[in-house]
C-alpha cells in the first residue's frame, strides 16, 4: 500500500503538515491530475481539524509557526471569541437569541470568473458592512470561505428578516458584480443546547434555502423534519417504485412557432405512488441523484422513450425525435453509452430520433469529455438549462452540442426588461453563428411567443402550448397533427 505521506512527504492527518501541503501546492505538484474534489475534501478535513483544535486542549503555542499557520491561528482565535460572545449572550440576555448563517450564492463562480483576489475583496467588503451594521450585542464571524455567521438578540422575528434586508441592500452589488446572499436563521428555543448544535441548525437552514426559488431567507422550523421524513420515504420506496413500475414517462411537446406544429418531445419522469399520488421530479430527483439511484430511473425512462419512438415509427410517424434527460451522475462512467446502444439496438430505432439532454454544470471538462464520446457515437446532444448559471459560453466552444435549450429564466427576463430581451437576442444570434439549433423552454405567454418569433427563435416548449402529458395523450395529439 502507498501512503499519502510517502508521496507528499507530509502527513495529511496533522494540521500543521496539511498547512504546508496547501501552502506549497504539493498535491498538484506531485499528482498533477488530482481532481479538485479531493482538494476540497482535504480542505474540509482541515476545517474539521480546526474545529477539533478549538475545542480540544491543543494550545496555539504547541504548533509550529509559518504564514499559513498564523492565519489558521488567527481564525481559531476569532472562532473562540465568537463562541465566547455567543455563550455570554445566551446566558445574559433576557430576549430571544438567533443565529443567522449566510453565504454568497455561486461564490465559486465569482472566484473562477474574477479571480481569488477579487473573491477575497468581496469577503472583506462583507465584513466591513457587518462591522457597520452590527451593534454591541450582535457578533459576526467569517466561519470559512464565504460562510458567515451572526449571533444576535431579538424581540420579534421581523427584526431578523429586517437585518438580512439591511445587509442585502448594502452588499447586493460590489464593483458591478451582483451578489446574492442565502440566509439560514435558527432562533434558539433552549438556551442550554450545545452551541455546535445551534450552529448546525443554522447551517442546515442555509443549505436548504438554496433550493428555494421564492426566498433567500429561511427560518429553521420543525418543518425541516418533514423534509427529512420525505427523504427517508423516497429512499425507502424507490426500489419498489422501479420493480412495481410506478415511474412513468410523461411527454412534453416541442413546437415550431412558424409551422405551428409538433416537432418533437421531451421525456420527463413522474412517480405515481399508490398512496401518495403523483410525486414530481423536483421532489425526488435531487435525492436519487445524490445516492446514484437516478441511473436506474433514467434507464427506465430511456427505455420507455425508445419503445415510444418505435411505436411512432411503426405508426408511420418517423419525424418526432424524443429527448431524454441524462443526469450528471452518468458523466462519471461509461455505462450509459453501453445502455444507450443496447436500447437503440433492441428497439431498432434510428439514432437521430433519440436526443440527449445534458445539463451544463460547474464541471465543464467532465461534460465536454462525455459529450464528445456521445457525439462520436452519433447522438444528437442538447444542452439543457442553458443560461441558468456556470460557464455556458466556454462549454459551447469546447463541446459538440447540436442544440441549446434556453432556460426559462430567459423567458421571464425578456418580458420584464429590455436588457433581458437584448441578451436573448444576442444569444440567438450567437447560436446561429455557431450553427446551433435552439429550443426555448418555459414559454408561457403569447407575448413571449411573439418576441421569440421576432428574434428568430422558432422552436419552443412550454405551458403556452402544452404541459407534459401521459404518452397515450401525446401520441393522439401527434397523430392528429400528422394527419
Ligand atoms: P428540465 O429538464 O429543465 O425539464 C423542464 C421542466 O420544466 C419540466 O419540469 C417541465 O414540466 C417544466 N416546464 C415545461 N414548460 C414549462 C412552463 O412553461 N412553465 C413552467 N413553470 N415549467 C415548465 P418537471 O417535469 O417537473 O422536471 C423538472 C426537472 O427534473 C427537469 O427539468 C429535469 O432536470 C429533471 N427530470 C425530469 N425527468 C427526468 C428524468 O427522467 N431524468 C433526469 N435525469 N432528470 C429528470
Ligand atoms: Ca431537460
Ligand atoms: Ca431545462
Set out the fold topology.
Layout: H1 4-8, H2 15-23, H3 26-30, H4 36-55, H5 67-92, E1 96-104, H6 107-114, H7 116-133, E2 138-144, E3 147-154, H8 157-171, E4 173-174, E5 177-178, E6 181-187, H9 195-209, E7 217-219, H10 223-243, E8 247-256, E9 261-273, E10 277-279, H11 281-290, H12 294-314, E11 322-326, H13 335-347, E12 354-359, H14 364-376, E13 380-386, H15 392-398, E14 403-406, H16 408-416, H17 418-433, E15 437-441, H18 446-455, E16 459-461, E17 469-470, H19 471-482
Parallel strand pairs: 6-7, 9-11, 11-12, 12-13, 13-14, 14-15, 15-16
Antiparallel strand pairs: 1-3, 1-6, 2-3, 4-5, 8-9, 8-16, 8-17, 9-10
Helix pairs in contact: 4-5, 6-7, 7-8, 12-13, 16-17
Distance between the termini: 68 Å
Mind describing the biggest β-sheet? 8 strands, mixed, barrel
The residue-averaged pLDDT reads 86
| Beta-strand percent range | 15-25%
Q: pLDDT under 50 segments (min length 5)?
A: 32-46, 52-58
Write down the overall geometry. elongated
Explained architecture:
This protein has 483 residues and is α/β, with parallel strands linked by helices. It has helices spanning 4-8, 15-23, 26-30, 36-55, 67-92, 107-114, 116-133, 157-171, 195-209, 223-243, 281-290, 294-314, 335-347, 364-376, 392-398, 408-416, 418-433, 446-455, 471-482; strands at residues 96-104, 138-144, 147-154, 173-174, 177-178, 181-187, 217-219, 247-256, 261-273, 277-279, 322-326, 354-359, 380-386, 403-406, 437-441, 459-461, 469-470. Strands 8-9-11-12-13-14-15-16 form an eight-stranded mixed barrel, surrounded by five helices. Strands 2-3-1-6-7 form a five-stranded mixed sheet, with helices on both faces. The chain has a two-stranded antiparallel ribbon with strand order 4-5. Strand 9 and strand 10 form a beta hairpin. The structure holds ligand C2E and calcium ion (2 copies).
